[in-house]
Specification:
With 422 residues, the chain is mainly beta. Helix content is 13%, strand content 50%. A 16-stranded antiparallel β-barrel has the order 1-2-3-4-5-6-7-8-9-12-13-14-15-16-17-18. The protein starts with a helix and ends with a strand.
C-alpha cells in the first residue's frame, strides 16, 4: 500500500510540470497567432487614410446675387440670405507600394455627390513621377489645384468657375518630375488627355489636351515662389448648323449643315506666379497672380464650358476671352488673423466693349459683357483645425446703353464661413 502511494505521488510530480508546459505552449502559440493577426490588420489599416473638411456658411446677397448655398431669391425687390453646407468633403485614400487609389465625396444638404475617383502609379525608381487616371483636378493654373480648405477667398475666380466648372475632368495624365537629388527637382510637368465635359459622362469622340509646366522653389528659408505656364487644346461639339464668329464687332453666322458634328476650337493659355515670405514680426505675406486668354465656344447667352450629360444643340458662338485675378494675403502680426484682398476679372468677348454690346444687328448679348469682383476678407485660425472666414464681394458688370437690365443689377455677396478640417 505504501509502495503504491509512493508511485502515485511520483507520477503526479512528474506529470504536473509536463501538463503545465503543454498548457503554456498552447497559450503562447494562441497569443502569437492573435498578435500576428493584429499586426496584419494594423498594417492594412495603415495603408488606408480618411481625411476631409466641412464648411458651414451664412451668405447674404443683394437682390440679384447668386449664392452658393440655399435656393435663389424669391423676392427680386429685396436682398436675401441663406445658410447651408457649402462643402462637406470626405476623402478615402488607399496606398500600397507605388500605387494608390483616391475617392472623395461631397456631402451637403443637397445630397451626396462624388468629386474624385482616380488611381495613381508612381515610378518605381525615384517615386517623383507618376501616371494618373480617373476623375481629378485639371492640371491648369494654380487656383484649380489649390484646395478649397486652404483657399483664402470663399470661391475660385469667375474665369475658372466659367471655363472649368467643377474643376475636375475625366482623363489620364503623366506627371514628370526629376528625383529629389536632382538640381532640377523643382521643375514639374503635368499633361494628359481629358473628356472635356467636367465630371459628367463623356458625350463625344474628341479628347482635349491639358498641359502645365511649373517650378516651385525657395529663395531662402523664409521665402518660396512658384511660376507656371498652362495650355488647353481642345474642342466643343457643334450640334447645330449655325456657327457664329466675330467680324467687325459683330457676330457673323456660318449656316452650313456640314458644321453639325464638327468641333469648335477651345483653346486656353495661362500664366501664374506666387510668392510667400514669412517674417517674425509680420507673419506670412503672400501674393498670387494668374492671367488667362484664348478662344471659348459657347452659346448666345453663355460662355460656360460643357458640363452636361447631353450634347449641345444650340447654335455655337465663338469668342476670344481674357481674365485672371490678383490676391494679396497678409498675416496680422503674431495673431491668428489674416487680411485678404482679391481682384478678379473676366472679359468673355475681348473684341467688343461698352455700348458696342447689345446693339441692334450685332447678335451680341449680356454674355459678351465683362465683369470684375473686388473681394475683402478676414481669416481667423481659431484652433488647429478650425477656421472662420468673413468675406465681402463687390461685383461689377460692364455697362451698355443697350442692356439696361444688366446695368441695374445688384449682386454683392457677404459670406461668413466656419470650417473644420480633419
Amino acid at each position: 500500500m505504501k509502495l503504491q502511494l509512493f508511485i502515485l505521488c511520483l507520477v503526479t510530480l512528474v506529470t504536473i510540470p509536463s501538463l503545465a508546459q503543454n498548457t503554456n505552449t498552447s497559450d503562447i502559440q494562441e497569443l502569437q497567432e492573435k498578435t500576428d493577426a493584429l499586426e496584419k490588420t494594423v498594417k492594412t489599416l495603415s495603408k488606408f487614410k480618411v481625411s476631409g473638411y466641412i464648411q458651414g456658411q451664412l451668405q447674404s446677397g443683394q437682390k440679384d446675387a447668386s449664392l452658393k448655398v440655399g435656393s435663389g431669391n424669391h423676392d427680386s425687390d429685396h436682398s436675401f440670405n441663406r445658410i447651408g453646407i457649402r462643402r462637406g468633403r470626405i476623402k478615402f485614400t488607399y496606398e500600397e507600394g507605388i500605387t494608390s487609389a483616391v475617392f472623395q465625396l461631397d456631402v451637403t444638404e443637397k445630397g451626396v455627390g462624388f468629386k474624385d475617383a482616380y488611381l495613381n502609379i508612381k515610378d518605381p525608381w525615384f517615386k517623383t513621377s507618376a501616371l494618373r487616371a480617373g476623375i481629378f483636378d485639371r492640371p491648369f493654373g494654380y487656383e484649380i489645384g489649390y484646395s478649397s480648405s486652404r483657399r483664402e477667398s470663399p470661391e475660385r475666380s469667375t474665369i475658372f468657375q466659367t471655363l472649368f466648372p467643377d474643376e475636375r475632368d475625366l482623363g489620364a495624365m503623366l506627371i514628370l518630375q526629376p528625383s529629389k537629388e536632382s538640381a532640377l527637382h523643382a521643375l514639374k510637368f503635368q499633361g494628359g488627355f481629358f473628356a472635356g465635359n467636367g465630371i459628367k459622362k463623356e458625350t463625344d469622340n474628341r479628347k482635349d489636351f491639358i498641359g502645365q509646366l511649373r517650378i516651385d522653389n525657395k529663395i531662402n528659408k523664409n521665402t518660396i515662389y512658384g511660376i507656371g505656364i498652362s495650355t488647353y487644346l481642345g474642342g466643343v461639339y457643334q450640334g447645330n448648323s449655325e456657327v457664329y464668329t466675330m467680324k467687325d464687332k459683330n457676330f457673323v453666322v456660318d449656316d452650313n449643315e456640314a458644321n453639325i458634328g464638327k468641333s469648335a476650337k477651345r483653346q486656353y493659355f495661362g500664366v501664374d506666379g506666387e510668392i510667400a515670405h514669412k517674417s517674425t514680426a509680420m507673419g506670412e505675406t503672400k501674393l498670387t497672380v494668374e492671367y488667362l486668354f484664348g478662344k471659348q465656344p459657347g452659346t448666345a447667352s453663355s460662355t460656360k464650358s460643357p458640363n452636361s450629360d447631353a450634347l449641345p444643340t444650340a447654335p455655337t458662338y465663338i469668342r476670344n476671352f481674357s481674365g485672371g485675378y490678383v490676391m494679396f494675403v497678409q498675416d496680422l502680426g503674431r495673431s491668428p488673423l489674416a487680411a485678404v484682398v482679391k481682384f478678379d476679372w473676366y472679359d468673355p468677348n475681348s473684341k467688343i466693349s461698352g455700348n458696342e454690346v447689345g446693339k441692334s444687328g450685332s447678335n451680341t448679348s449680356s454674355a459678351d459683357l465683362s465683369q470684375n469682383t473686388w473681394g475683402v476678407g478676414l481669416l481667423w485660425n481659431a484652433y488647429k483645425n478650425v477656421r472662420v472666414q468673413a468675406y465681402y464681394e463687390f461685383n461689377n458688370y460692364e455697362k451698355s446703353e443697350h442692356l439696361s437690365s444688366i446695368r441695374d443689377k445688384k449682386t454683392d455677396v457677404f459670406t461668413l464661413r466656419l470650417q473644420y478640417k480633419f
